[in-house]
Amino acid sequence: MNPIPYVDIHTHLFRPEKETITVQNIFPGEGFAAFSGRNFYSVGLHPWHIKTPEENNQLLVQVEEALEFDHVIFVGETGLDRRSETNFEEQKRVFEAQAFMAEEYQKPLIIHCVKAYNEVLEIHKKMEPGMTWIFHGYNGSVQMTQQLAKQNFFFSFGEFLFLPGTKAIESFRILPLNKIFFETDEYDGEVEYMYKQGARLKKIPEEEITMAVWDNFNRIENKLMSRF
C-alpha cells in the first residue's frame, strides 16, 4: 500500500479506489453521491455544451447550486475551445462567469482549452484571480507553458504523456514538480500509470513525484488534510 495516495485530478468515471483521491467531473444538473471519504467532484459547463444565452444562464444556476456542497471541490471543467462549433463569444462569457464562481466559492478552476491559451491568459490577467487555475489534459508548447507557468497556472497531464512527439511530453519535462497534476479523464485505466510514466520522463523515483503531487493538491485544497 502506498502511504501517500495518488490523486486523479480529473476523471469522467466513478472510481471508488481506496488508495486514490479522485475528482470526478459532473455536468450541470447531474446527480452525485454523498461524500464517501476520497471521492470528490467538480462541476462546470463545458464549452462543447454551450447553448443559447438563456439556456446557459439556467445551466450556470445549476453549477452554482452544486458548488454549495463541500465535496464539490472544483469549478469545471469549463474553458474555451476554438475547434468547437459553439459560439466562441458565448464560450468566453460562460467561462468568465464560472471563473467568478470559483472566486466566490473559493474553489480552484479546471480548464478545458483548445487553441485558446492566449484568450485564457488574457482573461486571467484581467481578473487577477486568487484561486488556482488548472489546465486539464494539457498539451501546450514549451513556449506557451513557460508563459503560463509565470502566471501561476497548474498543469494536469494524462494520456498525451504516452504519445511520442506530443507537446505535452516536452512541456512536462521542463515544468517543476510543484506545477503538475495527473488525470485519467476518460481513460478507463488507473491514474497510477500516469504517475509511473511521469517518473520515467522526469527520471526520478515514483515516490518523489507522488509526494510532490500530493503536496500540490493539499496546497490548493488545504482543508483536505483534516479529512483523513
Automatic annotation (TrEMBL):
Binding residues annotated for a divalent metal cation 1, in chain numbering: E77, D185
Gene3D superfamilies tied to this protein: Metal-dependent hydrolases
Keywords: Metal-binding
Pfam families hit by this protein: TatD_DNase
Superkingdom as given in the UniProt entry: Bacteria
Residues reported to bind a divalent metal cation 2: H112, H136
Annotated signal peptide: none
GO MF terms held by the record: hydrolase activity, acting on ester bonds; metal ion binding
Protein name, as recorded: Uncharacterized protein
